Batch of 3 targets.
Target 1
Amino acid sequence: MKIKVRRIHYAWVILAVSFIGVLAAQGVRYSFGAFMDPWEQDFASSRGTVSAVSFLSFIVFALSQPIVGKLIDRFGIKLIFLVSMIILGAATILSFFATTIWQLFFLYGIISSLGFGGASGVTATVAVTKWFHKRQGLALGIVEAGFGAGQMLLVPSSLLLISQFGWRITVLLLGGFLIVIVCPILAFFLKSEPSKIGIKAWGQEAEGDKPETKDIPIKKSNGTRSFV
């Protein structure tokens, strides 16, 4: 008796990788609040000044989205997602060496925010639309859940790490997590589009599977059920 093993379409691998990427990048982004108190104390800055770092980050993030979309069209999903994650991880690690709040304006407010912009829902959404011909709503919903999952996992983790080891060790660990774990996952498993590995998007009909159509003269079509 032969047992048929059903292979998982690679689109679901892409979905899982996109979910992990969004979870990691946006989880780090949402962890900003965990660093506000230690940054105020360490850099002798006011709450308003530290909040301005976040404000700048939102502006850079918003402005980057159309540019990211254009870059994806030119260079593909994989390159943009991977490079953005490397930029984000590197900037997070370099924050360890910050000695003034103005350095954080540059590292977090600008550089990290460019990484947030590339490793965002825009990139993941393009991946879903390229790899899923059907069930795009389900796939997009799972990707969007990555935002909440990142906030749920990384924000409490950051608070715990800061309380135990301080904010500098925490940024090293977060940056290391992005570079050592997330980046290799994106590099090995993420593919820009199905044609790169010689397959079709999930749910897409092969040309031979499409129902056969026949040309019906207009006079005859008047009496057919489908034209009534």
Target 2
Amino acid sequence: MFLTNNSDMKSFSVNILFGILSLIFFSTSLIAQNYDLLIKGGKVIDAKNDINGIMDIAIFEGKIAKVAENIPEKHAKIIINAKGFIVTPGLIDIHSHNFFGTKRNAYLSNSFGSLPPDGFTFRSGVTTIVDVGGAGWRNFDIFKEQTVDRSKTRVLSFLNIIGSGMKGGVIEQNLDDMNPKLTAMLAKKYPGIIVGVKLAHYEGFDWEPVHRVVEAGTQGNIPVMIDFGGSDPELSLEKLLMEKLRPGDIFTHTYAHVKGRTSIVDEQGKVRPYVFKARERGIIFDVGHGGGSFVFEQAIPAMKQGLQPKSISTDFHTGSMNGGMKDITNVMSKFLNMNMPIEEVVKSTTWSPAQIINRTDLGHLSVGAVADVTILNLKKGDFGFVDTKKLKMKGAQKLECELTIREGEVVWDLNGISNPLWDE
């Protein structure tokens, strides 16, 4: 190209300058839009990182990109105004039943009593759910293909020590099908998905099932969860907690009062001393509310005496979802109204369960962590909460899930706080 005069030279210079400015403007625009989502002004509670205050959270490509007091809005594509809400890591429910299917007379193992996760998790803020005992080593492959691999919810598993899973009745009494070696072998095949071993519903006066489930946990290097009781006469709860279970093993249905199992609170309203000693030696006390395993006559005196749960869980299935349990936010609300601080309630549904199941990649909002986030609305008012004996406790506060994010994607938005108005 030849420039013939000063006019051509000036025109060329202007064009070059315009091009450079346009490139700078375009590049700056790209840099400015460097977050997919920005959650503004919520009260962030993150136990792992010791955060408890008003913060912003930026998300990019499914990961937590930044947590700070004030992140400019111009840096994000979507702004979520969380002012007045509580922002937490995605909730983790470590006691649920999700091996749903159509097998007759199979109880919670590929049958009608279990629930498909995605229909019930996100609307209550749960991003990770653990099926406990639905599948054993014989049918885990079906559960994985049918539920784990097809759910947006992160679905994990405690294998049943019974090879054929939680089919109920006589099947769960079969000592010959309690195989520690094969259970541990399968757990090692799917590390991080199979996160524990479950024993439940055994009715004999016999410690052998406990020995076998603990052996499976030891061989697989994973914790055990036990639904204890049902024998007549009762097996010793003290012996279970102080001798049979290992530190890190889980005693679920903590606040139950059922036939065949010694309650943690005695007839005089006192927590049995060995229960506190068991907690000191590392036994995990889990709520596991369910349809028959949570009563205020146990929970309220236990909480007053300092026995709060390490993990709040639902025991979610068709027999509990429409009763006093309802969902995890309802169970959390019960403990709030029994004077458990909100920070501890959140910890018991986020960072604590993540540690219990050895999935410490979850349950926190560290930069680089998966962007599973729950936004909760803590409502004040006159509320009622029901236990499994259909008795009511009054309360003045109640949690409700406002919005749920799974791997950076909004999967539940109760009131559309992540969406623009239709006429703007």
Target 3
Amino acid sequence: MRIALYPGTFDPITMGHVDIIRRGAALVDRLVIGVAINRDKGPLFTLEERVFMVEAECAALSKDSSCEIVVHPFENLLIDCARDVGAQTIIRGLRAVSDFEYEYQMVGMNRAMDDTIDTVFLMAEAKHQAVASKLVKEIARLGGDVSKFVTPDVAVALKAKFAK
């Protein structure tokens, strides 16, 4: 069984993330979406909220795919999470050249810790390349329309979060 891990904070999950999940699911038998517990980033949504949103978005994708898609929160090293879920591959999405520098360093460190786990990069579709969770949150915080960047359910969650 080909198992891959697609990690991220998903704060919130965007159309770019959904695109990478859909395309990643076409490559493997089981795709684990690793929702990172990253206290340093100070997420807007709680872990439970992020997991719920990712599960909701993946439910529809699972129906349209022969791939099993599961959501797995984690707080340990990415390479340890990959081992924990039995992944042979880590999937990372790239939006721009600037993403590659950081990702290149991470791949080197991960390979030094476990050279049996490969990393595969998927370029975001052109229409999603500018989409970043950080920017989506800023637009939502300032009352802008995020409907081009997230699904309707996530847009509602963002609106509710900033209405408080």
